[in-house]
């Protein structure tokens, strides 16, 4: 069986190569939150966010996850996880991740640079839903990784990455990152009933569905 590449492709029998490597680099007394943080570091890298020190020395220009490692002093004396992050194409936009353990819950905060992009994102993660410390099998300790990947990327990394790229005027492959003109063109290609339904689930698309050019288009 080929070893999975992405974290979400991990199985109960085989972890993704980079997650397995980071997991085995943890000390023997690592907590369940420590193991979850290893998984989150992998997800951050998959979304383009690398530890800041690696982007500064240009290590990740080769974009190889075999170079990824858990930052030194990730966990402070008060038990809080702190790390600086940036996109290699925007090394000057330094973000912060602060993860605070509260019982078996890890509250993860992704904080953007203070200039221009100011909206942060946060998520409370039930650590034991994704890590089973009682499993004797290495791969079996991580569970529900596909769900974790979708939640983390949809709720934290994709929105922040979009905000950062938009601030720099860089088009990116996401709904938020598309120019308004393209969104309007997409709406014109859909049946009017679909346009109305889309407008019910997204605030921006609702506003666009009410735009004069869209209303005129469907009246013709």
General description of the model:
The structure is a single chain. With 220 residues, this protein is of the alpha+beta class. The protein folds into two domains: 7-167, Protein Transport Mog1p, Chain A, CATH 3.40.1000.30; 180-219, no CATH class. 41% of the residues lie in helices and 16% in strands. It contains nine helices and five strands, in the order H-H-E-H-E-E-E-E-H-H-H-H-H-H. Strand 3 (90-102) and strand 4 form a beta hairpin. The longest helix has 23 residues, at 145-167.
Write the layout of secondary structure elements.
Blueprint: H1 17-25, H2 32-46, E1 50-51, H3 52-56, E2 81-87, E3 90-102, E4 105-111, E5 121-126, H4 127-130, H5 145-167, H6 180-188, H7 192-201, H8 203-209, H9 212-219
Antiparallel strand pairs: 1-2, 2-3, 3-4, 4-5
Helix pairs in contact: 1-2, 7-8
Short note summarizing the structure:
Helix content is 41%, strand content 16%.
Feature tags:
elongated; single chain; F-box_dom; Protein Transport Mog1p, Chain A; F-box-like_dom_sf; 9 helices; 5 strands; 220 residues; 2 domains; protein kinase binding; alpha+beta; Fbxo7; five-stranded antiparallel beta sheet
- CATH topological fold name of the largest domain: Protein Transport Mog1p, Chain A
Q: Number of domains in the coordinates? A: 2
- What is the tally of beta strands? 5
Tell me the strand order in the biggest sheet: 1-2-3-4-5
